Structure formats: C-alpha cells, structure tokens
Amino acid sequence: MATRRRTRSLWYLAPLAVVGLALVLILLSMQPPVPWEYGAVRAFGLLGYLGIAFGVASSQYMVELARFFGRPFVRLHHFITYTSLALIALHPIFFAAAFEGPSAFVPDLSSWDAFWRNAGRPALYLLAVGALAAILRGTLGRNWRIVHWLMYLAFLMGTVHALLVGTDTRYLAMRILVVALAVFVAGVFVAKRLPRRRRASGR
Fold first, then answer.
1. In angstroms, how far is the first alpha carbon of the chain from the final one?
2. Residue 134 has pLDDT above 90, yes or no
3. Among candidate residues 179, 154, 191, the one with its CA nearest the CA of residue 61
C-alpha cells in the first residue's frame, strides 16, 4: 500500500517539473533584450539547477521509478543527473567565454562574502567529484556514498550563489522556488540517512 501511494505521488513530480520549466521561460522572456551569451548563462544555470533538484528527487523514489518507467532506476537517475550536470557546467563556460575568462572557474577566496557570492565555482567541482564517485562506486566500495553526498553540499552552495548574485532570484517567485528546492534537497538527504541510523541502532 505504501509503495502504491509513493508510486502515485510520482505523478506530482511531472506537474512540478512543467511549472519549474514554465517559470524559467517566463522569467527569461520578462527581461529586456540582452546578448544571447547572457541569456544562455541564465538559462543553463536555471535549467541545470532545477534538473539537479529533480535528480535528487529521483533518488528518493528508486523502486517506484523503476516500476513507473519499466527501466532500471540507476539508468534513469544517471540520465537526469548527468544531463543536469552538463547544463550546469555550461553556465560558467558561457559566462567565462562572454565576460570573465578563465578566472570564472577559480574559487574566490579574497573574502568570506566573495567566496559565498561565487560559491557556484567550488560547487561545480564538488558536483563533478560526487558524480565521479557514482561512476567509480564499484572501485570505491561502500565509501562511495560518502563522496557522493558532496553533491548535496554542492547544491546548497549553488543555492547560496543563486540567491546572492542570481539575476532571476531578484523575483520573489524564483526566490521562493529556490529556497523550497534547497529545503527539499536537505530533507531528502535526512530522509535517506534516517533508515540507516535506525538499522544501525537496531543492530
């Protein structure tokens, strides 16, 4: 019964994805005409951020997603995650090419404020390490999950970066969406950890 309810709840993810995508397109269309490179920076950042959030959501519905789509969960999760990582990586690539150059990939350690305003830079490397841990999980053994959890930290760092310097997060609707996604991702991390702690305490 619980599995059926969770499977039915997957239908709620589709409207949320559509709403998120529609919000991105609306925000992009509301802006005055800008160079296409600047539009690409914003679009890749927003779409990559939303995609990673849904990638995290998919990890909470492993069995249900496999039944829902009739395919192994890992393939679905990796497809969502790697597509989102490619999009989020294009965000600084276009920014570097159009505006700042190679320094756009260097973490800013000049001050505490500057680090968090540009927290997307180290977050990109954490995302890459976390994704690599999943690819090499057969080599890393049980500890691959610990490294993979860096993706949660990277997402939260990216959230701070988006709230502090994001062009589109100046809109209240987008700020609410970003904060809600960050809370959701943190909740998924806690929810995935609780069963392990309960099993450990039971043993």
1. 27
2. no
3. 191
